[in-house]
Structures are given as C-alpha cells and as structure tokens.
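Structural prep section.
Before we set up the soaks we want a predicted structure of the protein with NAP in place, mainly to decide which crystallisation condition to try first. Input record follows.
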Amino acid sequence: MSSTALITGASKGLGAEFARLFASKNVNLILVARSEKELNELKDELENRFNISVWTIAKDLTIPENVQAVYDEIKRAGTEVDYLVNNAGFGDFGYFADTEWERHRKMIELNISTLSQFCHLFIQDWIPRKSGKILNVASTAAFQPGPGMSVYFASKAYVANFSQAIAYEFRKYGITVTTLCPGPVKTNFGRAARMNHPNGFLKDMKTPLPEEVVSFGYRAMMKGKALAIHGVLNKFVASSVRFLPRKWLATLSAKVISW
Ligand SMILES: NC(=O)c1ccc[n+]([C@@H]2O[C@H](COP(=O)([O-])OP(=O)(O)OC[C@H]3O[C@@H](n4cnc5c(N)ncnc54)[C@H](OP(=O)(O)O)[C@@H]3O)[C@@H](O)[C@H]2O)c1
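Run finished without errors. Recording the tokens verbatim:
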C-alpha cells in the first residue's frame, strides 16, 4: 500500500527537495506553503516523473486556524499521513530593537506553534496504529543564542528541545521524531530573512547543496534517529559549544552573524 508524506514549506528550498526525494520513493505527497503557483508547478513536475499523486494546499501557516484547517481537510478526504515533515520556517536578520514585532510574532507562530500543533494533531491518529514518522527541521542555530537573529535562534532551540522530548515520549508507540539541524544552505532562506547585506555571513561561505542536506535528513528520519546534525564541522561546533561558558556564546555567535 502506498504511503503519504505531508511536507510544510514545500514550494521551494529544502521543502521542495524533500518533496522530490519522497516522490522518488513512490510516496504520495501533500504539499503546503503559501505560493500556489510554485506548489502546482512542483505537483506537475512530480506527477509527470513519478507514479504518485500530489495534493497541494496553499495556506499561510502563520495563521493558527489554518493548521487545524489543513488537518481537517486531510481527514475529510480520508487520507492517512505516514510521514510529517515540519519544514516551513523563516528568520529575520537585524538587531531586535530595529526589527518589526509583527515579523517575530509570525516567525514564532510558524517555527514553533505550527510545528508543535501538527505534531499534536497527527500523534493522536498514530498512537492507535503505532506507526508514523516526524521530521522537524531545526538548525545549527538551535545550539547557541544568536544576536542579530535572536528570535530565530531561540525558535530553533525550541524546535530541537521540543522534538527530542517528544521523540522520547513517542518511542513507546513506535513513532519516531527526528530533529534535522542543517547549517547554512543556499535557498531562499537568506532573502526571506533579509540577510542580503553585501557582507552578510553567508556570502562567501561554501555551503552544501539542498539535496545533500535533504538526503541526510531523510536517511536519519527513516532510521528513526532523534538528532541529525548535517556536516562534520557543524557537528563539531554543536558539541563544542556545550563546553564553553554560557556567557561567551552570545559574543562568539554575534561575531559570526553580524556584519
Ligand atoms: N537555508 C538555510 O541556511 C537553513 C539552515 C538551517 C535551517 N533551515 C531551516 O530549513 C527550513 C526550510 O528553509 P529553506 O532554507 O528551504 O528556506 P526557503 O527556501 O525560504 O523555504 C521556506 C519554505 O517555507 C514556506 N513558508 C514560509 N512562510 C510560510 C508561511 N507563512 N506559511 C506557509 N509556508 C511558509 C515557504 O513557502 P511560501 O513562501 O510559498 O509560503 C517555503 O516553501 C526552515 O525551517 C529553515 O529555518 C534553513
């Protein structure tokens, strides 16, 4: 029997690559993001290349009612979701006092509330059947405070801690939760976070291809790993920061992020 993956933030970037990878494994897809046109172009591409069905739902997931509405639509259609990829997220570059609160409020809604609510909705369906896999996209930002992107870094710390906690809780039901922590990847993320300053820290950085990060995350999810940090250097940094005095972390991080 064919299975189905729900992928949020699937119109571009890592989410679109997740869609391509799941499609290549003959998994049917439910793709959610705001950009209807991009979602439909991806649907056409994937349905032409693979023997799967792709359902697109264009919704703004910073609006709390839309999360429940997506879930209700899926239930009404009688579709069972087997894989949940909570990938939609964005950041905002700039010192907290200089940035708009509304952007932060939406970021917290999307990066934290939407991700948590989808987990909460699907776990209720998965407990009786004792199966289901979740991949929550955090970031290497999760491991330290981030002056210049304070709310984003904190939101990803939430994702990592929340996801590892529920991974522990859900083990007894045979349900796995994987936290994927990519380092910088060139997608639309930088533009969405308004990081296009000429000296922005991503500018000259050699970064992995989105496909590499996605394939790494996918393999970790299938193995049911709780934490997947992409890249040797990122793993090293994420483990070393644990041994540094907390008071140094914001200063070190500020030097990397700011221009
Ligand atoms: N790229 C990096 O360097 C990097 C590093 C670490 C972690 N991450 C994380 O990876 C995830 C994917 O990011 P990306 O790099 O692929 O960025 P991206 O290219 O900007 O893609 C973000 C996706 O999220 C969707 N999205 C944004 N706001 C949304 C909203 N209000 N409602 C529904 N969907 C929304 C976007 O679609 P629409 O615009 O069509 O809505 C898009 O599909 C994010 O959680 C990000 O924090 C990225």
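Observations: The chain has one domain: 4-257.
Flagged for discussion at group meeting.
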